[in-house]
Amino acid sequence: MDDPSGRLTKDGIRIYERGDFAGMAAAGAIAARILDEVAPLVQPGVTTASLDEFIEARVAELGATSATIGYRGYQHASCISVNHVVCHGIPGPKVLKDGDILNIDVTVILDGWFGDTSRMYVAGALSRKSERLLQVTHDALMLGIEQVRPGNTFGDIGHAIQTYVEAQRMSVVRDFCGHGVGKVFHAPPNVLHYGRKGSGAVLEEGMIFTIEPMVNLGRPETKVLADDWTAVTRDKSLSAQFEHSVGVTGDGVEIFTLSPTGRFHPTWG
Ligand code: MF3
Ligand code: CO
Ligand code: CO
User: Fold this and answer.
1) Residue 268 in contact with ligand 1 by CB distance below 6 A
2) pLDDT tens, 245-260?
3) Which of 26, 99, 122, 165 is the most buried (most CB within 10 A)?
4) Is the pTM of this model over 0.70?
């Protein structure tokens, strides 16, 4: 890592300086823009590999680099997780069919800053059941983000997400979590999407991390397939995820990966 600014808390969480947020905003804007641009390409009949090729090309054209290509042997510019795939789906020859729901997750590096974001798409028509899953997952992310301010705790974020999702009779995945981000891809803390109010580290101005809840229509358990990446629901139920990279400001939160065209959810725009 090139000479990170700021200091570490006793929990090993980096406190960035106020001026650093501009770098995160620039990286986040590129990742979010690419997620906007790929939306019209998500159609029945296309392969997930074709979507990834578009993403890889746009990362380069926009002057960034992919954080995922070469990361622990991963070879693609995105993760594309279809239907019961929870996360880390590998783009490939799989052809999308009408009604498939999918998460596309892109992380770019710009000037050393990592912008990490994902959102949901649908190929063709969205079923009522899928629409509800997507809405609940999106709202869970935003309720988690609403808890981000100095003095609140990471447990407050997880608690807000878990109580909302479970009240909708859906489940929160425990096996994957959000993470510190900034000048590195994955740093402390683990940002859990479940938990108790007031538990965990206290949020401080200058912290930068992701919130990326995965929500299942069925049970929360997952398993990783033989490719060592693809995580699926054990009960084959549908799963959804939305992710933002955020920073703690003096009195709240800055979201670095907002959609520049307001298209963060497939039923918008
Ligand atoms: N972007 C993912 C995250 O939200 C990580 C993907 S790592 C990969 O943390 F290697 F699978 F691409
Ligand atoms: Co992430
Ligand atoms: Co991500």
Assistant:
1) no
2) 999 999 999 999 999 9
3) 165
4) yes
